[in-house]
């Protein structure tokens, strides 16, 4: 037991030391030649235009997160569905069914919440208090 713990601790020490050593070596070895093209915002090989600091619509991330959640749900529910016949034979099918029902109910409540907030609509209708006119190209806060 103590030997296994010492081995794990030694591995952590050696790997941490190697990480630190490689970072320090890299700091001194790397070439530093800042030119305008290297200091500019990277936009897939295209010349950037405008400021890189703008309000990005995070609706894509919300929809992607919902997709990932339901993708993981499928990955967790399918194995239970595959072995459900064996669970019926062993007499614990009701427990697996209750667990899956609770799991799916929580996900459906979360989906209903996101849907009710309007976060799944790609173009969201804004209320009058949320809208204001902005001149295109004018800096933020300009009169």
Characterize the structure shown:
The protein contains 5 helices and no strands. With 143 residues, it is mainly alpha-helical. The chain has a domain at 59-117. Helix 3 (59-82) runs antiparallel to helix 5 (93-117). The N and C termini lie far apart (71 Å).
Secondary-structure blueprint:
Blueprint: H1 2-29, H2 36-39, H3 59-82, H4 84-90, H5 93-117
Summarize the structure.
The protein has 143 residues and is mostly helical.
Comma- or semicolon-separated keywords:
143 residues; 5 helices; single chain; mainly alpha; 62% helix
Gyration radius over CA = 27 Å
Low-confidence stretches: none
- Total beta-strand segments: 0
Structural classification: mainly alpha
Helix content: 55-70%
Query: What does the largest sheet look like?
Result: none
How many angstroms does the end-to-end distance come to?
71 Å
Shape descriptor reads flat
- The helix tally amounts to 5
Q: Which range does the strand content fall in?
A: under 5%
Name the average pLDDT. 82
Order of helices and strands: HHHHH
């Amino acid at each position: 037991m103590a030997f296994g713990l010492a081995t794990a601790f030694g591995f952590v020490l050696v790997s941490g030391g190697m990480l630190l050593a490689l970072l320090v070596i890299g700091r001194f070895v790397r070439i530093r030649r800042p030119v305008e093209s290297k200091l500019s915002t990277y936009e897939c090989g295209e010349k950037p235009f405008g400021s890189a600091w703008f309000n990005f619509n995070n609706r894509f991330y919300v929809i992607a997160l919902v997709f990932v959640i339901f993708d993981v749900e499928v990955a967790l529910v399918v194995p239970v569905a595959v072995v459900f016949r064996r669970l019926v034979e062993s007499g614990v099918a009701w427990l697996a069914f209750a667990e899956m029902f609770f799991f799916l109910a929580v996900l459906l409540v979360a989906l209903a919440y996101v849907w009710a907030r309007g976060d799944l609509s790609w173009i969201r209708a804004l209320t009058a208090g949320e809208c204001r006119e902005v001149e295109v190209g004018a800096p933020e806060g300009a009169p």
